[in-house]
Amino acid sequence: MQPGSLRLLRPLGAGWAAAGADYSSRRAAGAEGGRSRFLPRRCPPREPMEGAEEEAAVRCPVCLRELPGALINSHLDRCLQAGEGDAERGWSPPSKKPRLAAAPSGETTPAAAPVFSLFNKGRGGGQSPGAPGGRSGAGRGDAAEKAEEGGLALGGGTALRGASVAQKLEGKPLADRLRPDTLRDYVGQERVLGAQTLLRSLLESHEIPSLILWGPPGCGKTTLAHIIANSSKKTGTRFVTLSATSAKTNDVRDVISQAQNEKRLFKRKTILFIDEIHRFNKSQQDTFLPHVECGTVTLIGATTENPSFQVNAALLSRCRVIVLEKLSAEAMEAILMRAVRSLGVQVLGKDDQHDSSATGSGSESSEFPVYIEEKALSTLAYLCDGDARTGLNGLQLALQARLAAGKTTPLSTAKGCSADGVVITEEHVKEGLQRSHILYDRAGEEHYNCISALHKSMRGSDENASLYWLARMLEGGEDPLYVARRLVRFASEDIGLADPLALTQAVAAYQGCHFIGMPECEVILAQCVVYFARAPKSIEVYRAYSNVKECLRMHTGPLPPVPLHLRNAPTRLMKNLGYGKGYKYNPMYKEPVEQDYLPEELKGMDFFKEQKT
C-alpha cells in the first residue's frame, strides 16, 4: 500500500483514515529502527500474518466486509471487477450511505463520485448514493419511478394524490400508463386467459412456452408480454424486447449470443419478445429456429397478420399460436371506467347532477372538478371497435380538449361547462374520434375475410348482408376496382347462364368505378351487389369447366391429337396430308349434322352431367 492510494480513497470511510494512521506510525517506527534487510528499498516493513488480526479493520465500500488494512487493496480490485460484471446483468450494489471521514477544519471533503462511478452506472450519471440528485438506494423500483414521472401508478388504477387531471394527462399516452402489470388486472380474453385455462396456469407457474400472439390491434398482445416481463423478474429470468420494425438480424444475433452466455455461465433463462414479428422476412425468422429448438431463448412473437402466411412453418411448429380476439364492449367499458377513476374524473349517471353523489373521486388540486357522462363512456366503448388503445387515446383527447376550453373560456359561456366544472358529453367523445373506428387491413387477414363474406352473402341471396360487407370494405379504405373485379368473376361463376345479363352489369359497374372513383362509385357497386344477390344462381358452366380441368389432370400418357377433319389447312401440303378432309360446314345444312368433335378416346363424354366426387 502506498500513501497516494490512501489519500484517494480517504473519503470512503473512517476505516481508511485509521489504516493510514496505522501505516504512518509503523513507517515512522521503521525509519527510527533501521530498514529491514529482508524488504526491498522504499517499502515499509511487513508485519507477520499472525498479527493481521491486530490491524485496524477497514470496511470495503463495495461488499461492506471488514478486512485488515493490508489486504484491502487486492480485495477492492476483485470487488470492482465483479461489480462491473454484475452491473451488466442488472445487479446494483447495496444501498448504504458511505461513512465519510471527518475532514480537518477549513478543508473541503472531496465527493465520492469518482470511486462509485466505476460500478454505479444508473440514471444518476455515476453519482454516489449520498450525492445530490443521485439515487439513495436500490430499493426504489422502476415502477415507482415511472409512476412519479407519469403521474399515474401503472396498472394500479389509483389517482396520484395532489395532481390535477391536466397534469395526469401530460407525458405518456394514457394507453401506455394504464398498462396492467399482473394477470389480475388484465381485462378481456377470457377464452384464452380465463380461470383454469392452460395458458393462465403456465403463466402463474412461471413456465413460459414459446408463443405467437395473434390478434387485431389493441386487443392486449403487448400488454400480455408486459405482464410476462414483470413476472420474469421474480424468477430472475432475463426478458429482452425487440421490434421487427427497427431491429436487424445482427440485433437478434447479439441477443441470442448473450442468452447463450447467460445460460452457460449462470443457468439463467432468456425470454425474447418480438413485436410485429411478421415484419421479419423468412431468412430473418430462420435465425430463431435452432435456438428456440434447443431452448436457448423462449420466443414470444406478436403479430396482427395471419401466422399461417407470415410466419415460417418451421417456426410455427416450435411455438404455440394464441389467438386473441377483439375486446367486447363490456371489457372496453371496464377499461375506460378504470381509466377515469385513475384520473379522478367523476362519472355522471342518467339521473345524476353535478354533485358529490356521482361515482369516483374528484381531482384534489384542480380549479374545478371534471365530469364525464356514463353514456359517453358507453358510446366510446362501442365506437373503438374492440381496440383498447383507440378507446383510451380517444378518452384522453376528449379530456384534453375540454380542459383546454375550460381554461381559455369563461365557465359561464363555454359549451359543456357549468358552475360546477367541466363535463365531457357523448358529442365530445364522437368529435374526438371523428368516425367509427373500423378494423380493416387492405393487405392483411381482414381483407380476405370481408371479400369472402361478401361473395358468400351474394351467393346465398342475402341482399342485406351483401350490402353490409360491401360497406365494411369500402369504408375501411378498400380499392373499389378490386371489388368490381371480384363482381365480374361472381357474375360467371355463381350466376352464369341463369341470368346472362349479370356479366354485363358487372363489366358496366367496373367501368363506372374506373370513370368516377370513390366516393361516387359506391352506389354503383351497391346496385351491382343487390342485383347479384337477387339474381337466380347457376353453377352449370363453372362445374362443367371444372370437370374438364379434372379430365386433363387425370389423363395418363400423351394427350390425344386433334382429329384431322377439325384441323385448319391453309397450305397445299396440309391439304395433301388430310387436314380438314371430311369436315361438314354446319351453316350449309338445314338439318343437324352428325359429326364428331372430341378426340377418339373421349367420344360420348358429357362434362355437364359428370359430377365431381
From TrEMBL:
Residues 122-140 have a biased composition (Gly residues). It is found in: Cytoplasm; Nucleus. The keyword Transport does not apply. SUPFAM superfamilies: P-loop containing nucleoside triphosphate hydrolases, post-AAA+ oligomerization domain-like. CDD domains: AAA (cd00009), HLD_clamp_RarA (cd18139). GO terms for biological process: DNA synthesis involved in DNA repair; DNA-templated DNA replication; innate immune response. GO terms for cellular component: cytoplasm; nucleus. Functions as a modulator of initiation or reinitiation events during DNA polymerase delta-mediated DNA synthesis. In the presence of ATP, stimulation of DNA polymerase delta-mediated DNA synthesis is decreased. Also plays a role in the innate immune defense against viruses. Stabilizes the RIGI dsRNA interaction and promotes RIGI 'Lys-63'-linked polyubiquitination. In turn, RIGI transmits the signal through mitochondrial MAVS. This is ATPase WRNIP1.
